[in-house]
Amino acid sequence: MGSPLLVAVDDDPDLLRDVERELRKRYEPDYRVCCLSSPDEALVALEELAAAGEDVALVLAGEAVAGAPGAEVLAEVRRLFPHAQRALLIGWGHLGEPDTGDAIFEAIARGRMDQYLVRPASPPDEQFHQAVASFLLAWAEARRLAPHTIEVVGETWSGRAYELREVLGRCAMPHRFHLAGSDEGRAVLAGAGASGKLPVLVMPDGRVMEDPSDADIARASGTAIDPSGDRYDLVIVGCGPAGLSAAVYGASEGLRTLVIDSGSIGGQATASSSIRNYLGFPRGLSGADLARRAYQQAWVFGARFAFMQQVTQLARERDGIVVGLDTGGVVVARAVVLAMGASYRRLGVEPLEALRGAGVFYSAAASEAPLVAGEEVYIVGGANSAGQAALHLARYAKRVTLLVRAARLDAGMSHYLVREVEEAPNIEVRTSTEVVDGGGDGRLEHLVLRDRADGAEETVSAYALFLMIGARPHTEWLPPTVERDPAGFVMTGADLSAEALLGFGRPALALEASVPGVLAAGDVRHGSVKRVASAVGEGSIAIQLAHRLLAV
C-alpha cells in the first residue's frame, strides 16, 4: 500500500488537466494523484482501491460529470472511504449564484458531499491550495495522522488513561490512544523506551511522560506559568470562546492580560467536531481548531495563560480585585471577566457513571470517535453539539442513535444540522426518549431507554454512550457577593436585583456582575445565547466595558 490518494473526476479534459497540474505540482510525492474522466471509471477505480486496502484522502468532482451532478459521484465515496474528504469543483462564475448555493447546501445536507471549492486559476492559485490543505488536514485529523499527535498508552480504557485523554482533549491537543497489550501499544512503548508506570504519553518531540499530572502536561506544552503575586489590568477566568475572545481584544488593546483556567483552551467548544455556521469559515472548522487559532492569536498579542490552576476566591478590596488560586497564590486585577462557561449535566444513573471512560463519555465525540468503529453508538442530547457529534461519529460507527427528550429535533437544533442528521443513512433519531439505566461487565454493554410519552422501557445493546445534555455553569466557587440565578448562572446588568446594586452608586454596565469591576461573558452568564459566535461577541464587548471601568 502506497501513499494516500488524491482523486479528481471530470469529463472536461481541459478542466481536469488544470486540476491534475495543481495537485501533482504541489502534493507529490506525499500523495498519489489519480485523475478520471467519467463517473463509471471513477466508481470502478474506487471499488478496486478499497478492495486493495488503499487510502483515499480527497475526492474532487466537477459540478456536472457525464450529464449528472458531480455530487452523485461524491455520494458513493463515503461508503468506500468513510474518512475521505469530498468536494465539488465549481467555476468562479458560479460563486454566489443562488441556484448553485442551494444545490451545494442540499447536497451537503443530504450527506452526498462535504464541501466545495473554486476551480484552480492560472498558477499559483494559493486560494485553491489553501482549501485543499484544509481538506487534507481534516482527513489527517480524522485518521489520527495530524501533525504533532501525542501517543497515549494505558492499561485500560478508563481510570487515569481516560482522564489524560480528557485533559488532552480540553487542551485541543491531537492524540491517539492505545491499550498497552495491543500491538500498537507495545510498539509505541518499545519505540519510546518506556518501561515505567502507565499510562504513558509520548510527546511529538519524543519526550516520554510516565503517569504525568495535569500540570506536567501543561508545562510540557509550554503553557504553564505561576502568576502568584502579580498585578494585571485584566484577569479572565475561563479559556473557552468568550475567554479567548476577551484575551485577544484585551491584550491587543494594551491591557496586561492573564487568563486562568482549571483545564486548558477551548472549553466546551472543543467537543464540536465541525462548526459550519461560524462567521468567516464557509467550509466550517472544528472547535479544537478554533480554540488553537484563538489561543495563538492572544498569545502573540501578549496575553499570558495559567492553565491547570483553579480560581477559588474572588473579592474586591481597596487595591483591586483579588483572585485567589488553589495553589495558594494570589493575583490582583483592576478588572475581571468571568468566562468559565458550562459543562454537560450529569445523567445521574449510577451504573453508567461507574463506566465513565469505558464506553460512557461526557462529550469527547471528536477524540473518542475512532475507538467506536463499526459499533452501535448512542448520543443523548438535542442541541447543535449533539447533532455535530452524531454526524462525526457516523463516519466511524455502524449506527448512531440520537436520543432526544423533546418531541421534535428542531426544538433545540439549527435547521442545517437537522437536515444533515435526518439525511444521514446510519443515524436514527428517537425523540421523547431518555436513558434510565444501563451497564456492562467492566465496559458499557447495554442501555435501558424509556419512552417519555407512554413510559414503555426497552433494553438495547450499546458499545458507547455520549452525553451532551443541559448546561451546568462552573460557578460553585464564587462568593455569595456574586449574584446568580437558581441554576447558578451569573446575573449581570439590568438583571441584577435592587439589593445587588446598593453598593454601586451608579448603574451597572451591561455585562457587569454584582461585584463592581467584575464582568461575565459567554455561557456562564444568565440569559446568554448558547452559541460560540455569541460567546465570542460577549468576550469582545466585555473588553470595551472593561476600558470604561479602568478609565474611572
Automatic annotation (TrEMBL):
UniProt keyword terms in alphabetical order: Flavoprotein, Oxidoreductase
Annotated ranges, domain FAD/NAD(P)-binding: 232-539
Pfam families per UniProt: Pyr_redox_2
InterPro entries recorded: CheY-like_superfamily (IPR011006), FAD/NAD-bd_sf (IPR036188), FAD/NAD-binding_dom (IPR023753), Ferredoxin-NADP_redctase_2 (IPR050097)
Catalysed reactions, semicolon-separated: [thioredoxin]-dithiol + NADP(+) = [thioredoxin]-disulfide + NADPH + H(+)
Entry annotated with the keyword Lipoprotein: no
Superkingdom of source: Bacteria
GO molecular function, one term: thioredoxin-disulfide reductase (NADPH) activity
Protein name, per record: Thioredoxin reductase (NADPH)
